[in-house]
Every structure is written in structure tokens, then in C-alpha cells.
Specification:
The complex is a heterodimer of chains A (530) and B (215). Chain A has 530 residues and is α/β, with parallel strands linked by helices. Chain B has 3 helices and 13 strands, in the order βββββββββαβαβββα. Chain B has a 4-stranded antiparallel β-sheet with strand order 1-2-3-6, with no helix packed on it. Classes of the chains: A alpha/beta (530), B mainly beta (215).
């Protein structure tokens, strides 16, 4: 059995992962350490995360059995870390292996990666069965259109440029804001046509090539002509961007299904699948039995994908497994936390879930810090902020305290036992454990949990919480349910807007000190300001 | 080469790579260069970027791709049309058949120049083009049968044959397995999927074959 380090860096979302004997030991994104969002720090390497994982695991990179770097590889960095002894794995293979081998899928499965590029391609399609993956299609960047480029350059240009001609919104960072605005818009034939002139689809091919350049000129020209100068116009644009993405990609999937009708399970990775609305539409296709989106779907997930790729090659990861949770980041002991807390002036008491549930029921904003921090873009119960879901007025308070953009929706966490009571559909619940797709909300719940339902289309992006996988998180939901008859809480990431999710206790304490949260539950203690 | 299509005035030249100027009413134009691989009619993207007709918009006022070697390519120019979105307004596929080309030999070594000239003659027979030669050696310059009055002539293409100093790091192939993928810093640019290779250790004949795409 082997120790395998995986690295990705030099582009965006650098990260380091470590797998030993086929088990995930640690995964750390660079942005959690640098405290600069990856979208604001292009070309960064996995410099700090590699050191952090090395220290945390007590296994020096040089002493590990394998060092795997994901394309595009920065050779100098790879040579330095590995002493010229490393493996390369293709960008989309890392995406696809990460997705399929953490999907738990049995039987015939299709795995698709799709993003803005990596090792000269934007997309790969694999047929998979019984732990075997066969490449079906590879789409080269130079010949293929990319929906990811459509989103990247729309995001980059819609708010105009600063004095250095950098987008006021950033690609690989702010796409979610456009997606969040989309439900408030409506179909507009002209806007749709503009976008369609940048990318189209037919017979399993997206075309024309160079969606990046084409989108940029259309968006810049639209900006100049005033197409984005009101909130409503931006919402209309976003709606049509979302619609064309769904129209083209679902056409692709339906055509793929025509060719491979026996494949009804789908795994996805790559930046495109950060789009939870698209994922919802895929999940709702009649012929689809189940979908799974790799929870670290963007390039931050590549380092673990690289480890898995190597472990599969070595026969140490034979079949798709299911992940219990994503708490693969750094953990802090009670004694470490207590020591850090000495620098602050707080009251401290032992954690009691009933008392915290009562606080939540009264409308308090609770910081929630447990276990190792999450791998991937979502806060899933390790670095979360919890609030009752029943009060829409909470949005204003949270947006103000967290300096969030007002149109970014809030997501619910839901006890597994009540998931199907609240949301329409029972497919892909494993993927819902990682908040990777939206569901429509049942009519009778819309008014009960308004703070976590998208106002326009009545959808939500729930995290299904299982007692076995996240016992403490499930317990607080359960206690809140006993008080309120609502098995749901609002869960937002523990960070201020434009900052990465927090890593360490000190950042959590600073949030409490600055009254961003009312109480902080950190491992087995509860802190409040004096 | 100059073309006017509706309100757009387009100037192309292939003297120092590929240069495109556009003058017209739109603030932005997209210039795109695609390559056709051997025996393929599917264009593959090499490079594209925006040019602008107005100052202060953050883009260059012209397009230049400093490719000095032969490859089968097309240039497309697009702009935004408020009725349809992106509109292709111009396309040109490189074709030097019957055209007047100039070859500049940047070497003081007669033996090297002679090797290059043999390959230029081969290029001429393949492409059926007219050639004017400029080198340090008069006897070589006169070695082509045809004589042209070149004063004021706009050559279709100018090839500058030479080699970068071995110490130059202006362009290099970091990963030789990726044929034709050139890198600047950490970001790759696709400069032909077939050419060029790193010239540092190539012979004179290999270099010119690489530049002129002669097997």
C-alpha cells in the first residue's frame, strides 16, 4: 500500500491532497491558507497547502511513495517538491477519476468533466462500470466551444472593468452571482440570440471554437451599449445565460443517451457543474436514475482526483466508494482552541445542543466550527454559520454582517428523514449531501422556510444531513426540529464576502469579537462576547 | 493587402508574422487565426484577441502574431451586430499561389545560406509562388531566374530566415512532448499544431524545413 500526494497549481484553485493506503488523509486548498480567494490570485502554486499537509500528516512529500501533479504542470515547482521524481495526470482525468471513484455508483455509469480548459481539452466523457473507465470522447479546446468560457467571460465583463482593465467581477469566482440572479429574469429572444452566436450545439459537439474570445467581444459590446446598466437588465441577461446553458447541455446529454441508452447514472466534475441549477435540470431528466457531482467540482478538486487516479492505477482504490463527509482539512484540538481563545475576552461554556437550538429558534446567528474544514466550495457543517430558516428578514442582517451581495441565495440543511417531505424528487440524495444541486420545494413548505427558498423559482440547494455521517450537525437540526417543528436550518459559509471560508479558530474568534455572529460553537465549547 | 467591406477598412500583412489592422465604426473587433492541419478542413484555433478602434478601452489597436513560419491558416474578423450578436465580417485563408514573396536570409555564412536557398526553391515549386531573395550574397540573390521590380511592391509574405541566439529565452517549448504548444510564462499559447520545434539544437536544413513546412 502507498502514500500518494496530489497537487494542482499554477492556474487557479491550487490545492494539495494526500491519500494513504487508499484512504483520504488530508485535502487543503491554497486559498484557505493564503486567505486570498483563488479568483483574485491567479497563477498561485500549491506552495503553502503542500507545507500544511506535510506538517499535518507528518509525512514529508519527498518521503511519500508517489507525487502526482495535474496538468498543466509547472515543472519548476514539481521538480522542487519531488526532486524530479513525479507523475503527471491529465487535467480531465483527474476530474473524472475524482468524480467516478467517489460516487459510490454501481453498474453502468457515464462520467463527464467539463470546464474552461486543461491539458488542451475542455471536456472528456468516460463510460464506467465496475471500477473500469473507458474514454469515449475528448473535446479539444482548439476545436470545441465551451459553456464554461461563456460563463467565465460573461462574469468578467458584465460589471465592466477597473482602471487596470480587470473585470469588476472575476471569472472562476463570481459566476455564482450570475446564477443567483437568473431566476429573477425572463426569456429575451435577442439576448438569447446574442449568446447563441457565441456557442451552439449539434450532434455531440459544441461549436464554434474560441467561445472565450467570442463571448468577450459580445459582452464588452453589450456593456458599451448599456445592456447591463440596471439590475433588471443584468437579471434578464443572467436568465438567458442560464437558459442557453441548460438548453445546450441537456441536448448534449439527451443525444448521448440516444447513443448509450443503457447508461442512466451520471457523474460530473469540472467548473460547469458548480451550476446547481443546471445540475437540477439534469437530475430531472426522465431517463436519468441518479446523478453525482464531485463535491470539489472545480479545479480545487484536482489534487484529490490525482491521488485517486494513482491509487486506482496501483489497485489500491478498486471500486467507487461513498464519502461520509468532506472534512478533510485541518483539525484543531480542544486544547489548541482554548489556548487561542486566551487572546480574546469571551465567556465560555460547554456546548449543549438544546441551548443552541433555543438560540437558533430565537433568531440568533451561530458560528459553527467543527472537525477539519471542508474540501471544496461549500460549507457543509465544519465551517458554517447557522440561522433559523423561518424569517426572511434574516437575509438583511446576514448580508449586512457578512457584506454579502444581496442576490446571493442562502441554502438549507435538512435532516435526511424529512428530505422527501420538503423537496420534490427522491433522486441523487447522495449528491445532495454535498449541496451540489437544487430541488423544487413542495408547496406546503415554501412559506415555512422562506429564508432558504429562492423567491422566484421556489427552488433550494439543500444539504441532506445524515445522522451517521455528520452526527453533531444532525443533532443540532434535530434539537431545533423538536422546538420549531422545522427540520431545516439556514447554513451559509463561515466567511465574509470575497474571502475564503475560514480555516482556524482565531478567524472564528475574530468573527465573534466583531459581532458578525452572536455565538460561536467551536468543537465542544460555546463562546460569547462578554 | 487592403480590403474595404461596408464600413470596415481592413489591412493585412504577413511581413512580420501576421498583422491585422481594422478601422471601422465598432469599438471592438475580434481577430482570430485558425490553422488547418494537414489533410483536414477543420479549423483549429491558434490565437485570437480583440483590437479596438478607440483609445482607452484596454485593447491593442492592431493584431499581431509573430509567427515566422509557414502554416495553412485563415484569419477571421468579427464584430458585434445588435441584430444578430457576433458577426463574421471578413475571412482570408493564406494562399501564396502566384503571389510575390520575399525571403530575407539572416546569416553571414554562405554555406548555410546555400542550404536555405535549396529549400526555398523547393518551397517555390510546392507553392507556385514568385520569389525575391535578400541576403548578404549577390550571387545567391541573383540565383532565381525571374527578376521583379520591387520598389513600392507590397509583398504577400516576407519570410525572415534566421535563428535566435542560443541564449535567447524569447520563445521555447517547455514540454517537448506537446508538439507546437508554445508557452509564455505559465500560460500556453497555441502557435501551430505542427510547427515549430525548438530551434536551438537544429541544423540549418532542419530549421528551414521547419519554417517552410517542408518534409
Amino acid at each position: 500500500m502507498s502514500s500518494i500526494y496530489g497537487f494542482f497549481g499554477g492556474s487557479h484553485n491550487p490545492a494539495t491532497s494526500l491519500v494513504i493506503d487508499g484512504e483520504i488523509v488530508c485535502c487543503v486548498e491554497e486559498e484557505r491558507i493564503t486567505r486570498i480567494k483563488s479568483g483574485d490570485n491567479f497563477d498561485a502554486l500549491a506552495e503553502l497547502s503542500s507545507k500544511v499537509v506535510e506538517n499535518y500528516s507528518n509525512l514529508k512529500i519527498i518521503d511519500s511513495d508517489y507525487k502526482v501533479f495535474v496538468e498543466p504542470v509547472t515543472d519548476n515547482f514539481a521538480n522542487r517538491l519531488s526532486n524530479f521524481n513525479y507523475d503527471r495526470v491529465s487535467h480531465h482525468d483527474a476530474h473524472c477519476y475524482g468524480a467516478y471513484f467517489t460516487s459510490g455508483m454501481e453498474g453502468k455509469t457515464i462520467t463527464i468533466s467539463y470546464d474552461g480548459g486543461g491539458d488542451n481539452s475542455v471536456m472528456k466523457v468516460y463510460t464506467c462500470e465496475d471500477g473500469k473507465m473507458n474514454l469515449l470522447y475528448k473535446y479539444n479546446m482548439c476545436e470545441t466551444g465551451s459553456l464554461s468560457h461563456l460563463w467565465a467571460f460573461s462574469t468578467n465583463g458584465i460589471m465592466g472593468y477597473d482602471k487596470y482593465f480587470e473585470g469588476n467581477w472575476k471569472m472562476c469566482k463570481d459566476e455564482g452571482k450570475l446564477m443567483g440572479m437568473a431566476p429573477n429574469g425572463h426569456y429575451d429572444e435577442k439576448i438569447y440570440k446574442f449568446l447563441n452566436s457565441c456557442i451552439d450545439y449539434k450532434d455531440l459537439k459544441f461549436f464554434p471554437s474560441n467561445t472565450a474570445g467570442k463571448t468577450q467581444i459580445v459582452i464588452d459590446s453589450m456593456y458599451q451599449k448599456g445592456y447591463f446598466n440596471t439590475k433588471t437588465k443584468k437579471e434578464i441577461f443572467s436568465y438567458n445565460l442560464q437558459k442557453i446553458t441548460e438548453d445546450l447541455f441537456l441536448s448534449f446529454l439527451n443525444d448521448l443517451h440516444q447513443r448509450l441508452p443503457e447508461y442512466k447514472k451520471l457523474c460530473f466534475a469540472g467548473g460547469l457543474f458548480a451550476n446547481v441549477k443546471l445540475n437540477q435540470k439534469i437530475n430531472e431528466l426522465d431517463w436519468v436514475d441518479e446523478i453525482y457531482i464531485y463535491p470539489a467540482m472545480g479545479d480545487e478538486g484536482l489534487s484529490l482526483g490525482a491521488c485517486i487516479y494513482k491509487a486506482v492505477q496501483l489497485g489500491e482504490w478498486k471500486k467507487p466508494k461513498k464519502l461520509k463527509n468532506l472534512y478533510f482539512g485541518l483539525k484543531y484540538s480542544d486544547s489548541e482552541i482554548l489556548k487561542i481563545s486566551e487572546d480574546f475576552n469571551f465567556n465560555v461554556e460547554i456546548y449543549d445542543s438544546k441551548l443552541i437550538a433555543n438560540d437558533l429558534n430565537e433568531g440568533k446567528i451561530i458560528g459553527w466550527f467543527q472537525d477539519g474544514f471542508e474540501y471544496g466550495p461549500r460549507a457543509l457543517g465544519a465551517r458554517s454559520i447557522l440561522v433559523r430558516p423561518t424569517d426572511i428578514g434574516t437575509h438583511e442582517v446576514l448580508n449586512s454582517r457578512l457584506k454579502r451581495y444581496e442576490l446571493m441565495p442562502f441554502a438549507p440543511i435538512v435532516m435526511e428523514e424529512f428530505f422527501e417531505d420538503i423537496f420534490v424528487g427522491n433522486k441523487s440524495k447522495y449528491s445532495a449531501e454535498f449541496m451540489t444541486l437544487c430541488y423544487s420545494t413542495k408547496e406546503e413548505w415554501i412559506d415555512k422556510i422562506p429564508a432558504v427558498i429562492q423567491k422566484s423559482d421556489k427552488t433550494a440547494r439543500p444539504q441532506l444531513v445524515k445522522k451517521d455521517n455528520c452526527p453533531k450537525f444532525w443533532d443540532i437540526l434535530n434539537e431545533y426540529h423538536k422546538l420549531s417543528k422545522i427540520p431545516v436550518l439556514l447554513n451559509t459559509s463561515f466567511n465574509s464576502h470575497n474571502q475564503p471560508i475560514i480555516d482556524n479558530p482565531e478567524d472564528a474568534f475574530i468573527s465573534l469579537e466583531n459581532s458578525i455572529i452572536d455565538k460561536l460553537v467551536i468543537e465542544n465549547y460555546v463562546y460569547t462576547n462578554k | 493587402m487592403f480590403t474595404q467591406i461596408n464600413n470596415e477598412k481592413i489591412r493585412l500583412n504577413f511581413h512580420s508574422g501576421i498583422t491585422v489592422h481594422v478601422d471601422g465604426p465598432q469599438p471592438y473587433y475580434l481577430v482570430e487565426v485558425n490553422e488547418f492541419k494537414k489533410n483536414s478542413d477543420t479549423p483549429v484555433l491558434i490565437e485570437s484577441y480583440h483590437i479596438t478602434t478607440k483609445p482607452g478601452l484596454g485593447y491593442s489597436s492592431y493584431f499581431n502574431l509573430p509567427i515566422e513560419f509557414y502554416f495553412d491558416f485563415e484569419i477571421n474578423i468579427y464584430c458585434f451586430n445588435e441584430s444578430i450578436g457576433l458577426q463574421k465580417i471578413f475571412s482570408h485563408r493564406y494562399n501564396d499561389n502566384g503571389k510575390l514573396l520575399k525571403f530575407v536570409l539572416d546569416t553571414s555564412n554562405l554555406e548555410e545560406a546555400q542550404i536555405w536557398i535549396n529549400q526555398i526553391k523547393k518551397y517555390q515549386s510546392i507553392h507556385n509562388c514568385k520569389i525575391v531573395l535578400e541576403s548578404m550574397f549577390d550571387e545567391l540573390n541573383n540565383s532565381f531566374n525571374e527578376k521583379y521590380i520591387t520598389k513600392g511592391i507590397d509583398f504577400y509574405k516576407v519570410y525572415r530566415i534566421g535563428r535566435y541566439p542560443k541564449s535567447s529565452s524569447d520563445w521555447r517549448t517547455i514540454d517537448p512532448r506537446k508538439e507546437g504548444v508554445m508557452w509564455f510564462g505559465y500560460w500556453k499559447t497555441f502557435w501551430s499544431y505542427q510547427h515549430p520545434r525548438c530551434w536551438t539544437d537544429l541544423s540549418s536544413k532542419e530549421i528551414i524545413n521547419d519554417i517552410l513546412c517542408i518534409e
